[in-house]
Amino acid sequence: MKYQTVIGLEVHLQLNTKTKAFCGCPIDFGKTPNSAVCPVCLGFPGSLPVYNKEALNSAIKLALAFSCQIQEHTKFDRKNYFYPDLPKNYQISQFDLPLSRNGHLDIVSEGKTKRIGITRVHLEEDAGKLIHETSSSLVDFNRTGVPLLEIVSEPDLFSPQEAFDYLTSLKNIIEYLDVSDCDMEKGSLRCDANISLRPEGAKELGVKTELKNMNSFKGVKDALTFEVGRQTELLEAGQTMLQETRLWDAQKNETVSMRSKEGAKDYRYFPDPDLTVFIIDQEMVSRIKTQLPELPQEKMQRFMRDYGLSEYDAKILVSSKKDAQFAEDCIQKYPEKDKKIMVNWLIGPLLSEANSRKLNLYELNINKDELINLIGFVENQSISHLSAKLVLTQMIDSQKPASLIIKENNLLQISDTAALEQIISDVVQENEKSVISFKAGKTNALMFLVGQVMKKSGGKANPKVVGELIRQRLTDA
């Protein structure tokens, strides 16, 4: 029997507010453990929470970006569970009246566009952090009460690759909105995955497994891939699937059982008595909607329309907000009408340099005017494309201007006819067979002869001028 994989993702996103969700404690990653706490976030008796308005604005902004319906009435609930890093023994979250519902995100995966439903985006607070040592475990409550958004997808993802592409697109939009730093190493963005298998053609979902402890998008993809194999083996062996929570062990490249999976009834949700039901003002929602920035898909369409870019090129340039801004600054600053020349440099040599250094484009810290000067040297055939790549590398490393690097390395091409004639004469005399082949109509012979001249000139000869001179000499002979 063949099985279909069904995946739903729950993304937990820390918002980049200055203070926590329900108190005035500062949010500062790396602060001394347990130094950014107060009676409210520690849940002391008699302390009263007040929700952070900045966090609410950010939450609405993100929900609108995913075309969610903002609920007019919303409330907070207590999600009860007992864990060492949860000082109140409950988490303030949302259950039956979340902030928003029924959104979507369009992704491109394996060459196809697919719409993934977003069930809800709701508000909650983060728990603390456990630090496990050899013989003990320590608790840092600094993270307790940091405002979180939970973004819950529909079970519309049918492969680990689709899940990876969904997360990549999601993170891209969040970065454009500037509501979180999305740093997975700091725990600002975390993801749990629900995965089940069902017979192909069936409509009923299979028994799901929740996967945790994945600290990268690649980790999510790898864990899901392993789980597809594990569940397939169990089903094919006729064994009963159990609903459970499993942890991803990246070192062993496998999932391990953690506990049986809880349902909503296990958490004993009930309305938080300290936080009343509140109404989302529609004027505020409309105002926030007008403040939404140009999102990646919109920017990509504009780049295609305004700069004549292909969808492929535009998608590369808008994949990061700061890279997109850097690219647009370069394109607009480039003085020539044909902007494609600058685009080719951005997605070619510059992107190659960025990838080799494991940096973003904007982090290359290259002067835009000097980049334009370098391109000018190539376009007027003063230096070759190969030499230009060498110059670009040195410009990034040394911050020297292009003209100085070209002078220091003696990279100017030889375009002077008289200087090239002697080299061409030597090459023609040394390669009689290629000369005969060219005269017989074999155009590849010309390219070979040009290559030999380039070799003799140490790569400094202008190949275009050399080609014309050789063609003229052999045609006239």
Please give a quick description of this structure.
The chain has 477 residues and is of the alpha+beta class.
Instruction: Please count the helical segments.
Output: 15
Largest sheet: 9 strands, mixed
**Largest beta sheet: strand ordering:** 2-6-7-10-1-11-12-13-14
Helix fraction by DSSP (H/I, runs of at least 4): 40-55%
Question: Mean pLDDT, nearest integer?
Answer: 91
How large a portion of the residues is in β-strands, by DSSP E? 15-25%
Distance between the termini: 75 Å
Instruction: Tell me how many strands there are.
Output: 16
| Uncertain stretches of 5 or more adjacent residues | none
Q: Count structural domains.
A: 3
**Integer-rounded radius of gyration:** 30 Å
Shape: elongated
Structural class by secondary-structure content: alpha+beta
Describe what this molecule looks like in 3D.
With 477 residues, the protein is of the alpha+beta class. The chain folds into three domains: 3-288, no CATH class; 296-408, no CATH class; 417-476, Arc Repressor Mutant, subunit A (Orthogonal Bundle). It contains 15 helices and 16 strands. The strands form four sheets. Strands 2-6-7-10-1-11-12-13-14 form a nine-stranded mixed β-sheet. A three-stranded antiparallel β-sheet has the order 5-4-15, with no helix packed on it. Strands 3-16 form a two-stranded antiparallel ribbon. Helix 2 (160-177) packs antiparallel against helix 3 (217-236) and helix 13 runs antiparallel to helix 14 (444-456). The longest helix has 20 residues, at 217-236. The chain starts with a strand and ends with a helix. The relative contact order is 0.09. The model has no long low-confidence stretch (mean pLDDT 91).
